Predict the structure.
Amino acid sequence: MAAGVFVDKRIFFLAAASFATGTEAYVYAGHLETLAHDLGQPVSTAGQLATAFALTYAIMAPLVAGLAGRFGRRPVMVSGLVLIGALNLMAAIAPSFGALIAIRFACGLAAGLVGPIATLAAAELAPPDQPGRAMAVVLSGITLAFVLGIPIGSVVGDWAGWRGTFVYAGVLAFGCAALIRAVFPALPGGAPRRLGAFAEALRPAIAGPLLLTMAGFAATFSAVAYVGPLVTAIAGLTGSGIGAMQALIGVGSIAGIVLGGRMADQPGRRGFLAGSFLVSAAALSSYSLLLGTGLPRFMILAGLSLAIIAGAAALFSRTPVIQTRLVAAASAEARPVVLALNGSMVLFGQGLGAAVGGMAIDVAGLPAVGFTAALAALVAVPLALGLPAMAVAAPAQ
């Protein structure tokens, strides 16, 4: 039974849903400068497309998951993916920046029907002693989005423009919707969620991990939301070259998921979480340190690659650990909402990070982004060390 989570193919279909939503979230990032130019906006303003998507998800996903949790898992996820597909096709023909940012708000709402429900379904399908590893498999879909989905989007943008990246994301979402509809079994929903399920998030055992999720993604996306301009400024790469660097985020994410999945089903791990934030701070500061160093180009590329891989590994190693703590701490009724709140913190952190990074660019220019992101990561270290000790418990089946 120890390996059951890995042979249950149903969980890997859930990873496909995460792959589609993870890809569409940042599919345009490699061509952000061109998008900004075409729509008559500065890069710092165009970067707020990430904020629009993320903050909508952050605010609405718990409510959406609370309402949708009573329905079958498959139709909810399929509906969300179809909406995401349609909205991305609309983004491809958006006539103005205002229209595009409105579409990104709507995409954030639709994504609330996919991520939390997929994570919950994985925990429900997992063996009793391996919910963390099951949820890590679902999360691996997001890492695959960074390895393949988003970089392919950057390549598509080389010959089809930034609008083509949205077409690609829309087709991908439709394809994953068809896959889930065709092969994923029907799973019943749960009971309607009461307000008490939301109130559980105020308990320290749940609020602390939620804050860590937000802090980790805010720190990372203060820089990653501007990965295109940063990579161009540091290494002189554009288009497909940026896509190759984006793929390294996925490489680091896979390493982090493997490590975090193993750690997730162990007791405690406050020191592991705190150490991961220190690694994040070191990696993120490299974005600023590498700008204008005058080092040979191969050394700059090596340093940038290492920073990207290490930063992604640190970020994604935390997620299975935090998710498992949340599942163990929450009541059975509250788990869908608590997992949705954690997803909200992921996206809220991304949106907050994009906003903070944009402000750093406006105030001090692109060289300030890495140091700003590193400072945000350091702030989370004492919070991680202050988490209450607890043994991991499996969710009720």
